[in-house]
Amino acid sequence: MTAKIAVLAGDGIGPEIIAAALGVLDCLQRDFGLSVELEHADIGGAGYDQYGQPLPEETLQICQQADAILFGAIGGPKYDTLERDLRPEKGLLRLRSALSLFSNLRPAILYPQLAAASSLKPELVAGLDLMIVRELTGGIYFGEPRGIRQLENGERQGFNTLVYAEHEIERIARSAFDIARLRSRRLCSVDKANVLEVSELWREVVERVGKDYDDVELSHLYVDNASMQLVRAPKQFDVIVTSNLFGDILSDTAAMLTGSIGMLPSASLDIDARGMYEPVHGSAPDIAGQNIANPLATILSLAMLLRYSLQQGELAQRIETAVGAVLDQGLRTVDIAAGAESIGTRQMGDAVVAAIRADAS
Ligand code: IPM
Ligand code: MG
User: Fold this and answer.
1) Which of 47, 67, 258, 317 could form a disulfide with 3 if both were Cys (CB 3.0 to 4.6 A apart)?
2) Nearest-angstrom CA–CA distance, 32 and 106
3) What are phi and psi of 291, to 5 degrees?
4) Is the CA virtual torsion 136, 137, 140, 142 positive or negative?
5) What is the 3-state secondary structure (H, E, C) of 127-148?
6) Which of 29, 37, 33, 30 is nearest to 6 (CA)?
7) Phi-psi region of 13 (alpha: psi -120 to 50; beta: other; left: phi over 0)
8) 3-class secondary-structure state, position 103
9) Is residue 141 among the annotated active site residues?
10) Each residue's pLDDT tens digit, 203-240
């Protein structure tokens, strides 16, 4: 069966890194019997420019009909002054919500070849491989009521609402326990149960779900402590599950532990593992169009897409092995070159394709 992939390149470096990933996909189609159909659509600033909307109706439809979405990046200074509803970020948030992509997997893996890039001492991060499972369609990001209102004294007050219903906590907990089972069977749930009622319920529900997974060791941390532990001794963690806002923050910290945010992929899945796959980094408008962006996070996102949504784990592994091989060859884009010689976006993409072919021959 031919799988349908929606391709949303977006803004900034988005089109360049997506082009590199499509080069890899093309190779898998040509040489490894993969059969996919691509549909390109506009999102973010590109959506606004074409249709006046960060998530055009047409794009949403294409995504709804796809088996998986490959996403580049969105945003740029040009759009920062638009009203909030028209900003590129809204396109991404609406897409997550419209497709119920509630489970956001953000691995933080330190490639041994890049150990020197971390801001932590190599012995603290060598071999780091942790997975943050972030709830993505609830919590304070989407809670109502929200807004900025005028108080009686004329002063303005901003307000947002942090809410989680039991079913939302339960499904993200199950998603995280399932992933923990595929790894080292340790799960740490992060909350703020010493202060927030929402977190109290979160902890209770996670505990309850945990009874169905007695082979997984469950622990809990408050988010302030978790952020400290992440930079103190990150290797104590395997899988972390947390709410939308805490996950947003902790996943940036975890990404930086690897020293190379340009290397990190992510997946956002619905209950049937249909998903959207995107690099963790942003649109980097300052380097857009210069052929210097690192395409590896997007290429590794493609690997996740193959593994989680297309059940092509073997092809995913080929991509991941090839990325290791190009790093072994000493090939680096400027963000991971530590001042040494670097190659461009296209060259890096081509090198991965060459490594996939070399490995198979
Ligand atoms: C992320 C980003 C988004 C978020 C922004 C762009 C809306 O920071 O994916 O982590 O806050 O979720
Ligand atoms: Mg973020």
Assistant:
1) 67
2) 27
3) 55, 40
4) positive
5) CCEEEEEEECCCHHHCCCCCEE
6) 37
7) alpha
8) strand
9) yes
10) 999 999 999 999 999 999 999 999 999 999 999 999 99
In angstroms, the CA 197 to CA 128 distance is 33
Per-residue pLDDT tens for 21-75? 999 999 999 999 999 999 999 999 999 999 999 999 999 999 999 999 999 999 9
Q: Kindly name the residue from 31, 252, 270, 350 that is annotated as catalytic.
A: 252
Give mean pLDDT in consecutive 10-residue pieces for the chain, a chain of 361 residues: 95 98 98 97 97 97 97 96 95 95 95 86 92 97 97 98 98 96 95 98 98 98 98 97 97 89 94 94 96 97 96 96 96 92 98 96 83
What is the spatial distance between Cα 354 and Cα 361, in angstroms, rounded to a whole number? Answer: 11
Residue ranges lining ligand 1, Cβ < 6 Å: 89, 92-93, 248
289 dihedral zone (left: phi>0; alpha: psi -120 to 50; beta):
left
Distance CA 345, CA 291 (A): 5
**Residue reference for tokens 């992939």:** 5
Q: Can you tell me the distance from the alpha carbon of 319 to that of 61, in angstroms, rounded to the nearest whole number?
A: 29
Q: pTM for the whole thing?
A: 0.91
Which residue of 89, 94, 102, 250 sits with most ligand 1 atoms within 8 Å of its CB, as the best mutation to test the pocket? Answer: 89
